[in-house]
Amino acid sequence: NNYAGNVPTYLNFSKASGNGEFTVEAWINEVEYDGVGNCIVGVGYGGGGEQFVLDTGASSLGALRFFVRNAAGTVSAASSTAVVANDGLWHHVVGVCDEAGGHVYLYLDGTQIASGTITAGSGILASSMPLSIGARESANNNPINYDYQFYGLIDDVSIYNKALSAGQVQSDYFASGIAPVNVQVQPSNVSTNQGANVTFTASVQGGTTPVTYQWYDNNNSQITGQTNATLTLVNVQTSQSGPYSVTVANTYGSTNVQAHLTVNQGAAQITQDIQPTNVVTYATTPVTLSVQASGTLPIDYQWYQDGAAVTGATNSSYSFAALLGANTYYCVISNAFSYSEGSGPVTSSTASVTGEAVTYVNATNFNSKLKIAFSGYNRAETLQDFPVLVNLSTSLTGFSYGGFAGANGSDLRFADASGTRELPYEINNWNPNGTSAVWVQVPALTGTNTFIWAYWGNASGTTPPAYTTNGAVWLPPTFQSLPPYLAVYHIEQTNFPYLDSTLQYPADIGNAPIPSTGLIGEDGTFANSQYLDAGNVNLGNGFTLSAWVNVSPSAGNIVGIWANGPGGYTSSEVGLFVNDYNTGDGALLFGSGDGATGAQPETGTGVVSLGQWHLVTAAVNRTAGTVQLYVDGAFKTSGGTVTDFPTNTDMNLGRFNTGSFAFQGMIDEARIHGGIDDSNWVWADYMTVQSNGVFSAYSTVTNSITLPITLSIKYSGNDVILTWPTGTLQSATQLNGTFNTVAGATSPYTNAATGGEQFYRIQAQY
Q: Residue 225 pLDDT more than 90?
């Protein structure tokens, strides 16, 4: 029932506008948390009148927190999970308000443990209450009652009219005289072979410097001269097995930490069998197999492929490029004791490595090439087999549709950064008079230096590869164990069937949307209960629903995007939709239900502005019962409850599956991914479409056409046969007439020698 109050008013940081900059610091030893906040230092009263509070009220267990209210009363909090009550220790706690930098910070024992954002220039809430230490008012009490009580000891409270840096906070902590904190030795337990070298390293997380080190051997005797952070033992013997320790000390105390050494002697024995045991990958992909063995050194290793010794493969690991087809590998291990003791060499288990065929591009067969770098992908995560959008148009320097040898880009090829491994692609739409959109599967999107190559202008390669239509762009090889797409609708068709690019769920029935110019090629306008029926899509326990949507400004009710149920808070279904019931509030919602109970997490209102294109995404974890919602690649809400729901029922695009809550507006590029997309994948999905020129960097087109180009003619019976090395065949009825491209013409081109005169020429880009 104690507090220190009536602190002079100049320790009040109220500010109507501008940046509030201050720091609150204290040493505490908390003996009990009573469940109502336990104020260390604060100004203001609970229930909205707090200017700032440093306390242990971040959770029901009493975790540390620091929060500030700006001039408008908006809270910015740095809430941690650190509980310090009843641990018997003194702790240094610091709250920092750096409004100019847009953050509030919380530190414990010199280390930042939490942070929150605060709007720069938004001021600090005014308060008529004086600063108090050890308690604060839970509400605007009359009479005043400091009932949010701290239980324990508080010392050295310091208030600064500036935001201390992380370095300054740590200096304050260490200046108080701290014994070495959290001393560790790595490795802590070593099992090695006789004759090996072993190194132990001590680390100290905190404490006042300088610190000293002294190492002790397995007899607990000081090791002469070993007073550094590392201890190296050379040519260890079995007699050196046992515990080793280090004492780390400073003026304020010392800590002793142990590690253990086991030295193995005798014949070689396998301690870890061959790893991995089964590898399936593309041929030429690097593979490493390894084993671990104990015994007296030196230990000899010999690797075998399909029963034959591999020259030079004499280490505990063997790295090589996967060969085409299935091959087996094992390792034979021995040392001198293997023979003197009569046990003989030991042989590992057998591993299987299968190399799948890789299709290669011969760049010399193509006249034109274009480098496409993904300089806009700046995330740390590597996205495997990611479908990127490539936009080809005459706006690219040096690009001309006349450079293609086949109709509709049939001689187009893509390759990885090496320029040789062929990549699957799908043409979304081909537009020789504008922009052609192509989806390409990039093996690994790893950062700003990732790039691929596009090639075209090959008269002998105009047959489109199978992967352009068999869904390979959206279905990673099974051996990679990556989630496939379940359905991908470009909505380029004008009537049924509407193609699913994965070939799994074509929409054969529904009410055809009205064709219109979309975000990528064509899209569908859903205005009069139009919808596509995908059939019974098996969603599984983890999936992602997404679509580009442009909701009509006149939509004043729920507009369904993806759904496999009738619509209703407790209906047996899942549904992704925009707008709350009977509103046009622009919220994105994900509903789920099992027929008895339901859940409907949603974003804030206005995140899907009506009359504009937005990418909406719901990443669903059915096992965990959660969903993450994104709009335009930005995370909007997570942790929303998901009620169990059916996973293999009729999925509709553009409405709930009984016809309710039909979509109003345009939909393009609607997808169901068989995995739970994370924030990096969703962001890249958005950027490759909306900001393609930022996400991707297109080089100048280069070509290798040799001039002059010769158009040859010969006769065979009643036919005329034209041949040419590259370019597009055009014809006219007069020499100075209008020349038009001969549809589908590839070299050699055969035409019957009948009718009037016909003039031909070749158009090519160079």
A: yes
Which strand ranges, in their side-by-side order, compose the sheet holding 212-216?
189-193, 253-264, 242-250, 212-216
pLDDT of 60 reads 83
Chain center to CA of 548: 20
**The pLDDT of residue 377 is above 60:** yes
Alpha-carbon distance 14 to 227, whole Å? 53
Of 693, 702, 746, 744, nearest to 399 by C-alpha is 702
Instruction: Assess whether the previous peptide bond of 601 is cis (omega < 30° from 0).
Output: no
Q: Decide: 356 and 341 in contact? Cβ < 8 Å.
A: no
Confidence of residue 220 (pLDDT cuts 50, 70, 90): very high
Residue 747 has a pLDDT of 87
Give the torsion sign (CA, 239, 242, 248, 254): negative
- Residue from 717, 727, 705, 720 nearest 752 by CA: 720
Helices (H) and strands (E) in the chain, counts: 4, 58
Buried b (16+ CB within 10 A) or exposed e, 652-664: bbbbbbeebbbbb
Largest CA distance in the chain: 114
pLDDT band at 718 (very low <50, low <70, confident <90, very high): confident
Q: Quick one: pLDDT at residue 680?
A: 97
Render 570-627 in DSSP notation, one character per residue.
TSSEEEEEES-TT-----EEEEEE-SS-EE--B--TTSS-TTSEEEEEEEEETTTTEE
Cα separation of 610 and 395, whole Å? 31
451-464 confidence digits (pLDDT tens): 999 999 998 899 99
Amino acid of residue 754: T
Long-range contacts of 689-693 (CB under 8 A, 24+ apart): 689/389, 689/519, 689/520, 689/548, 689/615, 690/613, 690/615, 690/632, 690/633, 691/376, 692/389, 692/391
Alpha helices in 289-421 (DSSP H): 336-340
**Element of type H or E holding 175:** helix 166-175
C-alpha–C-alpha distance, residues 467 and 550, integer Å: 31
Beta strands in 642-746 (DSSP E): 648-653, 665-673, 697-698, 702-703, 712-716, 719-723, 728-732, 740-741
